[in-house]
């Protein structure tokens, strides 16, 4: 694993760190590829129940793609298409990770960094964070999936404003339009994020996973394409040991101890 993508695990919560603080955590092509691999692996890791994505330090979540590489990795149509496949693979892996994911955002969250934050289930930000997609200043058209997610989060009018103007949004505006789920003082963001995910991780993993699948499928096509998977997940949950444990714990007036099976 590259030192520029670090993974730390504390109990059932894993943290993925974009580790280029000297470049405001700008994401290189190698990092895009590693993000896809790591997100897919964490989704399959039974010891992990939730994932935090963050940048090293507090100056930036990620300032976007490493534009200094573009003369080589996006120099013509062929390399641009290959680069796009790698970035889309990273977004898709984060989006499809079966565990609850939170982008914990300090400072700059721009371009590809904003797309990674969108790919997470939720976005918790510190006061003073800045958001933006400067694609229109680079002659780039944003991809369909990331644009769809932006529209899902903030609506078409705000999405057009963000993409047309390529301007930076202050944290309060990002919160007001629904891009950010929680906006907290800088010193409260980290403890709040991990406390929240510990509570999520204490719930039945099959229930959380099922909710994530249903919500994502509802956004994709109203749930039509994944009806069989949804029915299977509901049946597995009903037949699970966690369902029995949840029922027992409720009747015995004690906290449940879920095992994810």
Please tell me about this protein's structure.
With 261 residues, the chain is an alpha/beta fold. It is 52% helix and 16% strand. Strands 1-2-3-5-7-10 form a six-stranded mixed β-sheet, sandwiched between helices. A four-stranded mixed β-sheet has the order 4-6-8-9. The protein is globular and about 60 Å long. The model has no long low-confidence stretch (mean pLDDT 91).
Structure, briefly:
By secondary structure, the protein is α/β, with parallel strands linked by helices. It has helices spanning 29-44, 70-73, 77-96, 112-119, 135-138, 144-154, 156-165, 171-176, 186-201, 205-221, 227-238, 241-252; strands at 5-10, 13-18, 50-55, 60-62, 101-105, 108-110, 122-126, 130-132, 169-170, 182-184.
Radius of gyration: 19 Å
- What would CATH call the class of the largest domain? Alpha Beta
User: Structural class per helix/strand content?
Assistant: alpha/beta
Shape: globular
| Quaternary class | single chain
Properties at a glance:
single chain; six-stranded mixed sheet; four-stranded mixed sheet; alpha/beta; 2 domains; 2-enoyl-CoA Hydratase, Chain A, domain 1; 12 helices; 261 residues; globular
